[in-house]
Amino acid sequence: MVVQIEGVTKRFGSRDVLHDIHMHIPEHSIFGFVGANGAGKTTLMKCMLGLLPLTAGAITIAGEKVTFGETKSNAHIGYLPDVPEFYPFYNARQYLELCAVVTDMPKKEWKQRIDELLELVGLADVTSLIRTYSRGMKQRLGIAQALLNRPKLLICDEPTSALDPAGRAQILSILQKAKAETTVFFSTHILSDAEQICDHVAMLHKGEIIFQEELTKLKQQFHDQFVYTFTVPAKEAMKQLASTQAKMHIEDDTLIVSLPNDRARLVFMRELTQRELIVQSIHPQTRMLEQVVLEVLG
Amino acid sequence: MNSWVGFFKKEWFESVKTYKLLLVLVIFSILGVLNPFTAKITPVLMENFMPEGAVLNLPEPAALDSWLQFYKNVPQMGLIVFILLFSTMMSKELEKGTLVILLTKGLHRSTVITTKFFIALCYWTLAIALSFSITYAYTAYYWDQNSLHHLFFAVSCLYAFGLLLLAITLWGNTFFATSSGGILVTLLFMISLFIFAIFPKSHSWSPLELMATPPEILTGDVIPSDLVIPYVLTIGLTLFFVWLTTTHFKKKLL
Amino acid sequence: MNTDVEILIEYLPFLIPLILLQIGLGIFSAVHVIRNPHYRFGNQVMWLLIVLFIQFIGPLVYFVFGRGDDHGRAN
After folding, report:
1. Where exactly are the structural domains of chain C?
2. What is the pLDDT of residues A31-53, one digit of tens each?
3. Does C40 touch chain A (CB under 8 A)?
4. Minimal CB count within 10 Å: which of A34, A289, B35, C67?
5. Which of A70, A83, A101 has the CB atom closest to B2's CB atom?
C-alpha cells in the first residue's frame, strides 16, 4: 500500500470537512476519488501533502508519516493542483529545470528526463512562454512537473474538469501511461472519467467515504444489467411486465432489467413478444458509478 | 544549497523579466545625476527669480550641497521607489499560488524567504552603489570633497537602514499576503520612528538616526562611534525580521 | 540671451544624461503599453499618459502594478 489514510478528520471551525476517513491505495493502480464539488476532495489532498494540519488521524505515504509544514513524505509525491500556476516568464523546459534543481535531481539526468516528459505530455515542440499557454497545456505541463522526480504517488486534483472533451481525453491517456511508473490518485466530479481509467474508486460525500471498491468487482456487479427503451413509455412497459420474475426499475424513461444468465434473457425476450412490447433499443448498463451514487444516496 | 542557487536564479530571471533591473538602473542613475545638478543650479535659479536689483549673497555651491541633495533624494524618492518595486515579492506568489508546486517538491520554505530577501539586498546594493558613484563622480569633477568626513560610512548608514525597511516590507507582505500589506507595515514602522524621534532620548538608539544623520557625519558634527547603537540595532532588527518572516511562513497555510 | 546659452552649455553634462534617461524610459514604457494591451486595471490611454508625463514614477507604477501578466486565457 503506497498510501494509508487512517481515521482522518479535518475540522474547520465547528464543521467537519472530513470525518473519519479510511483509505488504502495499492501500488501501480489508478485510484479515482469521486465526489461533488465541495465534498472535501481538495482538503484531503492538501492534508496528504502536509499543506493543512489534521484534526485527528494519520496519513502514511510510502512508509513516511505526513507532518504539517515541511514533510519528508513529499519526496515521494508528485502533485498537480486543480488550477496549476507557473511562472509566466519561463517556457516549459526552463520551468522543469527549475523543478529539477528544487528536487535535487543530479544535473546529468535532467535533460533526458525532461525530454522524456515533454514527449509524454506532448509539449516537446512548444517553445513559447508559459504565459501564452491554454488551460489544457498548463494541465499537461502540470503532469510533467509532477512526474519529474519519478514519484511513487501522483496526486491530481480535478485534472480534467476545466477542459474541453479533447483536452480531457489527452489528460486521461497521459494518466494511463503514467500508471506504468507510479500510482495515480486523482479526484474528479465527472463519473465517466473515473470509470474510463480507474482500477479503484472511492466516493466522498459530505466529508465521508460512502463507497470504496475495485472497479472490476463493480463491473461484475453490474454486468447483468440491461437498459431497454420501448415505443411505449417505460412506466407502462414496467406495468405490463410486473408479473415477470426479472428485477427491474425505471430511470430516465428507460427500463433497467437484471438478467443474470442466458436463460433469463431468453425468457424475458419471450415475455416481451407475448405482451407485444416493441423494443426500440437495448444495451448493457455502463453508467455503473452513477448507479452506485444513486443507490447509496437514494 | 543547489536548490537555493536554483531558486535564486529564478528570482533574478524574474526580476529582469519584470523590468525591475531596468527600473532600478534608470531611476537610480537619474537620482545620481540629479543630486549635483540640483546643488549647482539652485543658486542660479534663485538669482533669476529675484526681482531686478535685489542683491542676494548666496554662497557658491560646494561638495557638501551635492551630498545634502543625495541624502535628501535617495532616502525620500529612492527608498520609496525601491520599497514599491519589491513590495509584492511574496504576495504575488501567494495570490497566484505559484509556490505550491515547488514547495510540495521539497523546496524549503526558508529558502523562499532568504532568496527573496537576498535578491532585494543585491538590488539595493546595486541601487546605492550606482547613485553613490554617479554623485561622487560629478561632485569630484566640480568641487573639492576633501573637507568631507566619512563619505563611505555615511552612505553605509543609509544602506543599512534600507535593508531594515526591506526586511519589514517582506515580513508585512508575507504576513498579510496582499500587495499593500508590506507597504502599510513599513509605513506604520516609519511613522512610529518619527513619533519616537519627538523624544530626544530616542536619538541615542533609534534606527532613524541612520537616515537622519549622514549630513552631520559629513560635516564632522557626528562621528561614527556615536551611531554604534542605532547601527547594531538596525542590523539586529533586520535579521530578526527575516527570521520572523521565515518562521511565520513555515506554518503558513497555502 | 547670451548668458542663457552659456548657462545651458554649462549644464549640458547634467542635462544630456537626465533627458536621455527620462525620455528613454518614457518611450520604452509607452511602447510596452501599446504592444501589450492587457492591464491589471485602467486602459491604454490612461497608462500612456501616466508613463509619458509622470517622470519615472509613472513607468514604475505601470511596470509594478499595471502591467498584465497573461496574454491568452482561452483554451
Report:
1. 3-64
2. 988 888 878 888 899 899 888 88
3. no
4. C67
5. A101
